[in-house]
Specification:
Elements (H helix, E strand, L loop, with lengths): L4 H10 L10 H19 L13 H4 L13 H10 L6 H7 L8 H13 L3 H16 L5 H24 L2 H8 L13 H16 L5 H4 L12 H32 L2 H4 L3 H26 L1 H12 L12 H5 L2 H26 L3 H22 L1
């Protein structure tokens, strides 16, 4: 098909290199590329006529395509589409080609080995040490950490229960109970609440002995004898020691439990379970001894924790009037009830059910698979 004279004239205006003998768009594009390359060689002899990105200079200059004055008839439009050559660059052609296949596993390993070879000895040693630690995946001192977690359970259970018993709330309930014995020496319920709270506050605060020895009754006499103050001071030292042990126990348990939930699935639950079981056994033994011989149990308890021997008083002394024997029986019953409640809650949380065992085994399997991948 020949090109109409009018179109050839328009093309000739675009470039003097195009002669009237150009018959189609293919020849037009080829002539235009040749002309551009010749201009580049003239302006820069070192230029080879191509751009480093793989495209022709004509394509990289992003010159607008010439607007061809053609007829808008359907036939001419179809003919123009047939003779139009796409002007996509090499980069675009590369983008439209199918994706290259991914690197094989062998090539990936070789790349990693090359990267490791560039590391200095210190970095290599650090990487190898980290990898060995990850492969072994065994927490340090696992048995000791599990034991400390288990031992913290009975200590915290007994301490919290004792703290709830030695409180103003229990004291108020006890003094207002109908079956609680009245004071035969003149203390009414309000007097007992006032002076009894003084005694409870003293064994938990850091006040000196004068906190109790300075309290006087309505007659202006000391309310507590020197022997009573000394015994309460001994109780104070015992309670402060238990408080420090409880705080240390919970801190050590939290530190020991750190990262164990991930690196040793199930060990925390089992440690609490066995610690809770030990709490139940200790409480059962103490309850049996107390039920079979309360007086003997009470006496032996004071002999163990108060060997000074200053814990025996007369019925007319203030400590006996405020805390009679019935008070200690009721306190022991409430203490056992609180301990049993705590044991029941922990047992429900840590009971080795089938579901929990399956979940722990699943997490162990995941950790094993991860270790195998790291070792591979």
């Amino acid at each position: 098909m020949t090109t109409p004279p009018q179109r050839r004239n328009e093309w000739a205006k675009l470039s003097p290199a195009i002669s009237h003998k150009v018959a189609n768009a293919d020849e037009l594009l080829s002539a235009r590329r040749q002309e551009t390359q010749e201009k580049d060689k003239t302006s820069n002899p070192s230029n080879t006529g191509t751009v480093h990105n793989g495209t022709t200079p004509w394509a990289s200059q992003k010159q607008p395509s010439p607007v061809l004055h053609t007829n808008t008839t359907p036939e001419s439009h179809n003919q123009q589409e047939q003779h139009t050559v796409p002007t996509t660059s090499a980069a675009e052609e590369t983008a439209t080609t199918p994706e290259q296949p991914l690197a094989t596993q062998e090539e990936q390993h070789s790349t990693r080995r090359a990267a490791r070879a560039e590391e200095n000895p210190e970095q290599q040693q650090k990487r190898l040490s980290t990898r060995e630690t990850a492969v072994e995946d065994k927490p340090k001192l696992l048995g000791l950490r599990a034991t400390l977690i288990g031992l913290s359970v009975p200590l915290l259970t007994f301490f919290l229960s004792l703290k709830l018993v030695a409180s103003s709330t229990f004291l108020w309930i006890e003094y207002h109970r109908a079956a609680f014995p009245k004071d035969r020496y003149g203390f009414d319920t309000q007097d007992r609440l006032t002076y009894g709270n003084y005694g409870l506050d003293y064994i938990f605060n850091l006040a000196p002995a004068s906190y109790l020895s300075s309290i006087k009754n309505l007659e202006g006499k000391k309310l507590f004898l020197d022997s009573e103050v000394q015994h309460m001071t001994d109780v104070k030292h015992l309670m402060l020691t238990l408080t420090v042990l409880a705080i240390m126990s919970i801190i050590s348990a939290l530190l020991c439990a750190r990262t164990l939930s991930l690196r040793a699935p199930g060990i925390i639950r089992r440690s609490i379970w066995y610690g809770n079981l030990a709490t139940a056994l200790i409480l059962a033994v103490l309850a049996i001894i107390a039920i079979t011989g309360w007086d003997t149990f009470f006496t032996q308890f004071h002999h163990i924790f108060f060997p000074q021997g200053n814990w025996q008083f007369r019925e007319s002394d203030t400590l006996i009037r405020l805390y009679p024997p019935q008070f200690w029986v009721d306190a022991a019953l409430v203490f056992c009830t609180l301990c049993l409640s705590t044991i029941a809650v922990l047992a429900a949380i840590t009971w080795p059910t089938t579901y929990r065992k399956i979940q722990e085994e699943k997490r162990k399997q995941e950790r094993q698979e991860l270790r195998q991948k790291l070792a591979g």
